[in-house]
Amino acid sequence: xxxxxxxxxxxxxxxxxxxxxxxxxxxxxxxxxxxxxxxxxxxxxxxxxxxxxxxxxxxxxxxxxxxxxxxxxxxxxxxxxxxxxxxxxxxxxxxxxxxxxxxxxxxxxxxxxxxxxxxxxxxxxxxxxxxxxxxxxxxxxx
Length: 142
What we know:
mainly alpha; 0% strand
């Protein structure tokens, strides 16, 4: 909907460069987390888990598989969505509710067994987040 002048074209180019350079910065910690979770569930064979070895934990095969899965899922989302608004709404509904309600309430409830009334307020906050998230997701898709 923007005019096709040089300023808009330059801005589009800058946004393209921003997306191309920020994607690896977002995928790296996610991939590292997934690899550590896979390593906890299914430890690599002893030959692959050499201490102080250079390379990804669990070997190059797992690293490559997780990387290809991330890229494939990203490509599938990019090709299947017409508007990024729906994806941003889903990320906002899940991420912000998780960070604002569920995690603080759940962590306080677990960490402070002698928290008194605050402990139950924290549990209520966690349960409220568990209600808000599916409600928000339902409202996004209906």
